[in-house]
Amino acid sequence: MQSTLLDYFSKLTGAVIGQLPEGNALCVQLAPSSEGTQYLSGTSSDDLSLLFLCRNENQQTALSTLEQICSTLTRTKAHPHGIYRLSVATQPNYVDREGKSWVYSCMIHCRYYDPNGFS
Fold this sequence. Notes:
The chain is 24% helix and 45% strand. The chain has helices at 2-13, 59-75; strands spanning 16-17, 25-31, 37-38, 44-56, 83-98, 101-114. It starts with a helix and ends in a 5-residue tail after the last strand.
């Protein structure tokens, strides 16, 4: 289920999945999150945290890219795949300066309902 959600967020934001590529780039990675809640039926509400990293030679572009992602994700009224309670866990902030490029990050947290019960 996490890979389905990661693909969804990647397509919605235009971020590549995995390591931050060279040059001006945006990526999304799974980040540690707490354990969800399992119900007697075997279904569950699980937590998912995503780390977005943006590298750009223009500091303002890196920051505004992540601010736009936070806004888009939190203002989307209905996400698919049982996603609910989506929030910004960490606002966009400075990470590093690599040569001429600035690196910024933000974290998004959400809960999702997994309808797959015990098999």
